[in-house]
Structure formats: C-alpha cells, structure tokens
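Hi, here's the filled form for the chain we discussed.

Project: internal
Contact: R.S.
Residues: 176
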Amino acid sequence: MGIYECKIIELANKNIIFRKCGKCSKSIVSMKPNDVIDNVQFFYCGYCKKCVHEFKVNYKLQIICMNIIENTIEMFEAYDQVVDSIMGCTADEFIKYLEKDPSLMEKTELQFKGMHCTLESKEMKKKDKNTSSSKSNKVIGFKVQDEFKIINVLKNLYNEYDSSLEAIKNNTLFIT
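And the returned structure, exactly as it came back:
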C-alpha cells in the first residue's frame, strides 16, 4: 500500500463506464451499433454466451499519472465508490448525463488532465498476454486539492453558454 502525490497526465481508457452481466457479473461487450432497436442497445456476455438485456453499470477509471515525489510515470485504476466520490455521481447517473450531452466523456477527460491529487493505492498483479505478469495500482483513496465534484464542473460548462446569452439579454454581462 502506498500514498502518491500525483499530477494526472491523461486517462488511459477513453470510456470510464463499463458494464457487467446482470447474471454472472462478467464483462459484457456492446453489439454492433446497428443492433439498437427502439433505443435499446444490446450487449453480449462471453461467459454466458448469450445476448443480455440486464446488466450492471460501473466505473473503471484508468489514469496515467506523474508521481511528483519520485518523478516517475505510474498507472492507477480506480473503481466504483472511489470514482463516485470524485465524480459526484454514480455510473448510472453519469450515463443519464451522457445521454443529454454526448461530448461529456471528452469534457470529463479534460477535467482530469493536469489535476493534482493524492492517491492511496494497493499494488495488484495482473496477467498480461505478452509477459508473465504486470503490475498496476488499484486506487482505494482519491483526494484532490480542492474538494469539488467533476460532474458539477461539467454541469456548469453545459450551462455556461446559456447563462452568457441570458447576461447579454439582461445587459448584465459587463456590470460588476
């Protein structure tokens, strides 16, 4: 277990949401985009070997950070409750926001880039196809310097354009 002072360089995964089969809890994959019928997207479970309609939505945040103390680049993974705490919403809620604003994933990544944080983690070993094993750090605590929730920042970005128009309309844009 370790505590790391880090600056986030980028998100390693462009999609921080992943889905698990409602029956076996194994990862599922989205079927072709053409398989959307009546706004319902279909998923396939390789373990159950069938199309699934019931699934669980989870966060999986893979971040590449610069360890400020040791001046090294490190990979960290954070899941559900840890990501909930920094995002300010559950994965299910984030999906609903994503439906309203398809560019939300890119905006989220921009909010993470350059963020200074303290990560508490434990080392976990993973099997890698190319080597016998690899190491990754599972985040069990995630603190940012300023206590804020990313979803609130994103909501403000979403409403920023509308509020500027309202200020122009009310002639209050340049009044201090």
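Let me know if anything looks off before we file it.
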